[in-house]
Amino acid sequence: MYGGGELMPARTRKIRDKQPKASRPHMPGYGLPVGAKGLLTWSWAKRRLEKSHNYWITTVKPDGSPHTMVVWGLWLDGAFCFSTGRTSRKARNLSQNRRCIVCTEDADEAVIVEGEACLTDDLQFLRQFFKKYETKYNFDMSAFRNEPIFILRPRVVFGLPEKRFPRAVTRWRFLAADRPN
Question: pTM for the full model?
Fold first, then answer.
C-alpha cells in the first residue's frame, strides 16, 4: 500500500526520448492556422522541459477536484521525473489516480505535459536521477533517498509561445508504444 492505494512501479526498460509528431491542437475560437507551417520543433519543448527550475504539477484528489503544487524535477530519458514526500497530497492523489499535468515555470513559453505518473524502483535509473537532480538543484538528496520517485509518461504535450501565438501553437502526441514503460 502506498498512501491509501497501490502504485505499480515503472518497468526497467530504457526510456527513450522519441521525436513525437507535431500538429495543431483543437482550440476552436483561437484563430489557429491550418497546416504545419510555423509549428514548433520537439527540441523547442524539450529544451524548456530540461531547463525549467520549477514546475507546476496538478494531480486529482479523490473527490475529483484538482490539486496544484510547485515541484522540482528533471526531464530525463523522455519523461518528467520528480520526488515527493511519501504522505504528500501529490503522492496520495497519484496512488488513486495516476493522471496528472506538469507545466514549466515560464508561461511566456509554456510547455504543458499531460500523462500518467508511476513509481520507479529501477536502481540504475534512480542513481542517474539522484546524480542529475543533485547537480541541477545543488541539493543533497541523501535524506530523501527513501521517498518515492515518480516518472510522468507524456501522452500529449502542448507548446504555447506567447510572442508567436497563435501561429506557433503546437501539440505533440505520444503513442502508447513511445511512452516509457
Answer: 0.87
